[in-house]
RNA sequence: GGGCGCGUGGCCUAGCCUGGAUAGGGCGCUGGCCUUCUAAGCCAGUAGUCGCGGGUUCGAAUCCCGUCGCGCCCGCCA
């Protein structure tokens, strides 16, 4: 698969070369060729308007002239000039043969890019282990996991990391609560059980000076690297963390590595960061607290001071984050972090600090919060939808739908789970991360239209046909019906979509594409009878190829490709 | 006050990086399609000053400036 090229890519190169050649010979112009893909008009198009300026001639004429001078090629089947554009049409018979052949040869690998030998660490979720995940933050694991899957598909070596904040106020409050309170909670998951201790302790801390002091003392001890306390703390937060991980598991999300924040205090790297940073000319002191003045880096106003230590010499979250990123950067070629938009300023601080220390900086994907129609989610105000409740509801509803349509299938629970959780993942990932989402049950649990079940359904239809008639290969497939042609073109562009969506770090492009592919398949299904038709063999090839590409997309999206539903 | 992000039919959304040929979809609503491969489907209809104003350009949803609305942030918290 090294340096291999997919058919559409080859076509595009041929077109570019052909245009370049004509421009050079006929007009003595060396220009970067920018092509368009006007759906439904041509496979590729070259607008001649910029040339018209250089040549001081009518673009319509130029297009016609260029069109005349370009001959058919290996991939170019036809060239036409229309309204100032040179339109190129691909040799559909060749495209068909190559695409079907490639999909069959490559299978689950179709669409992948060549191995990059680049290691990427994707950090996502990293939620404080003080309670269950709520829907407001559920974008994080879904975006992170999908990015990781996408990059893996694109030929990168990917490792996912969860940065466990075991030294923060949140975990300290939880710890205090569990040690000092006795609350009877009935819940089968520890994250839901323990969050009650956290909530109660947080309330007491606000009302009671003594409690506040005790919790602060816990934090101080952690920051001084008290191993005994840290170990005790770990015993408690691990149970909450495991609850969080169970929720993620339901969504098909598994994280490779867990990195504890305390590690960087214990191994002295935070101290080294502080030493290095305070040597910088931007360093200053306010009392005994050390800060960096970031005015010069475009950060103005009150927030220009980036504190790296407190007055008592202990480190701050962002400082420890710098140490973590230095460590991470030594273990990867690229770092990608998925963070809530509330972390923008902190991330900027970390980035500047890393640059000043001459270290690698991470790319960050920020997402907006999911809010409720009543406003931002808040555990304290009880205005919250837990991810577990959403998952449970989705699965239940999916199960009712399966029973309604299909009766009691033997693997109904598996199907219901795949449909329900798939719907959740798809609904989150189809929207670009920076767009705010207002959570509505009827939207989150939508099983129709642009949704995971729609796509899974198209896949199941393919499988159903292939179950009835075995596909045993097709030597020279050829298609005529416009629905067949549209479908084969969709299949052929998949590798391009993968490439672009990686480049733009935009997994929602895959979600968009696979929906369109499923849609194109539905049109084909409507128009072209497969089983029993004269073209049965060829159409089976198309069905099989569609099945494969939908499956590959769903793998990237972390959604189950169901054979039956 | 400052910084960042978002603003596309009643609702949701793609396209914006890299400007081009009628702004794609979905939900909803109206009507139609199951004696042939799964109707979680399909078809037809409905609905749009791409927040607003200016600029750049042969051409702007897309780039630039301004403006309004919403969100997030601006702690020796995380």
Briefly summarize what is shown.
Helix content is 54%, strand content 11%.
Question: How is this structure best described in words?
Answer:
By secondary structure, the protein is α/β, with parallel strands linked by helices. Among the domains are: 84 residues, Arginyl tRNA synthetase N-terminal domain (Gyrase A, domain 2), CATH 3.30.1360.70; 124 residues, HUPs (Rossmann fold), CATH 3.40.50; 171 residues, Isoleucyl-tRNA Synthetase, Domain 1. Helices cover 54% and strands 11% of the residues. The protein has 20 helices and 13 strands. The chain has a five-stranded parallel β-sheet with strand order 6-5-4-10-11. A three-stranded antiparallel β-sheet has the order 1-3-2. Strands 7-8-9 form a three-stranded antiparallel β-sheet. Helix 17 packs antiparallel against helix 20. The chain is globular. The two termini are 34 Å apart. The model has no long low-confidence stretch (mean pLDDT 94). The chain binds one RNA strand of 78 nucleotides through helix 2, strand 8, helix 12, helix 13 and helix 14.
Class of secondary structure makeup: alpha/beta
pLDDT < 50 runs, ≥5 residues: none
Give the full name of the CATH homologous superfamily of the domain at 387-557. Isoleucyl-tRNA Synthetase, Domain 1
Q: How many helices in DSSP terms?
A: 20
Provide the β-strand percentage band.
Answer: 5-15%
Average pLDDT taken over every residue? 94
CATH topology type of the domain at 387-557: Isoleucyl-tRNA Synthetase, Domain 1
- Radius of gyration (Å): 28 Å
Largest sheet: 5 strands, parallel
- In CATH, the architecture of the domain at 387-557 is Orthogonal Bundle
Q: CA-to-CA gap between the ends?
A: 34 Å
- For the record, what CATH class of the domain at 387-557 applies? Mainly Alpha
Shape: globular
Strand order of the largest sheet: 6-5-4-10-11
Number of E-state strands: 13
Specify the helix fraction band. 40-55%
